[in-house]
Amino acid sequence: MTAALAVDGLSVVYDGYYALDAVGVEVNKGESFGLVGESGSGKSTLLRAVAGLAPVTDGTIRVDGELLKGARRSKAFYRQVQMVFQDPYGSLHPRQTIDRLLLEPLAIHGIGDTETRIARALDEVGLGTGFRFRYPHQLSGGQRQRVAIARALIVEPSILLLDEPTSALDASVQAEVLNLLEQVRKDRNLTFVMVSHDLGVITHMCVRLAVMRNGAVVERLTAKELAAGDVKEDYTRNLMVASKGFVRA
User: Fold this and answer.
1) Could you give the CA distance from residue 217 to residue 201 in angstroms, rounded to a whole number?
2) pLDDT tens track for 123-165
3) CATH of domain 5-242
4) Longest CA pairwise span in the chain (Å)
5) Using an 8 Å Cβ cutoff, are 175 and 142 in contact?
6) Domain range summary for the chain, segments of one domain joined by +
7) Out of 26, 64, 115, 191, which could bridge 159 as a Cys pair, Cβ 3.0 to 4.6 Å?
8) Alpha helices in 51-113 (DSSP H)
9) 98 within 8 A of 133, measured Cβ to Cβ
């Protein structure tokens, strides 16, 4: 089976500093795959490199077996791969209504039937059509992140890159958004690549994960192994201790 996402020997270098150092990750279709590690370990840089937002110095990225070349990504790529960012406050244009925010990706990709698609997208993330003509500042943080998820889903991608999608939200809202994401993944058979500093989130959402440190993958394991404390690297054990609220099964 061709992997949904295959990264091999990927390096990202800024002024001699290796933000990513020969990273290799393979994510199966329909899988939810986690990336964990301390701040600055390279987790978000990996997602940004896949999305074409970070310059790749070396290595390859393949989506459904197709090699991505250079930093530029085609419209077809962004129809297939969408990213949800950490900050729902910063990722939505403050002067655009929710309707306009959802209409824009449809217009970019030449997708018709906009009325039906916008209504369906809002419904799918638990927001009614009454939210269509509100502005981001009129929404709570959780509602804004639901809009960001709806915007990513409206072009019907097969892969979602999730960069700490709930870390800016209150704990109770985090659970709601995570449950929403999991339901959407199952309903649409989506592939997730999820970055989080919270090991509890990763063990809840993901089947397999990679542990990153200083721009490199230091350990690969299953969520069950992590939850059971069946890890090989001291660094991973230290992450378990440091992860707030993480409880071993």
Assistant:
1) 19
2) 999 998 899 999 999 999 899 999 999 999 999 999 999 999 9
3) 3.40.50.300
4) 53
5) no
6) 5-242
7) 191
8) 75-80, 98-108
9) yes
Determine how β-strand 58-63 pairs with β-strand 5-14. antiparallel
**Separation CA 149–CA 12 (nearest Å):** 27
pLDDT at 249 over 50: no
DSSP state of 138: G
CA 210, distance to chain mean position in Å, is 14
Cα(24)–Cα(126) distance, integer angstroms: 36
Cα dihedral 204/208/213/217 (nearest 10): -170
CA 220 to chain centre: 18
Tokens found for residue 23: 């990273």
What is the Cα–Cα distance from 121 to 116, expressed in whole angstroms? 9
For the chain, what's the residue count? 249
Whether the model clears a pTM of 0.90, i.e. scores above it, the answer is yes
pLDDT in tens, 79-91: 999 999 988 777 7
* Per-residue DSSP letter, 163: E
Which tokens go with 143? 């509602």
Pairwise CA distance, residues 89 & 148, whole Å: 10
Residue with tokens 């592939």: 191
Give the integer Cα–Cα distance in Å for 29 and 6: 11
Q: Is residue 9 a contact partner of residue 215, using CB atoms and an 8 Å limit?
A: no
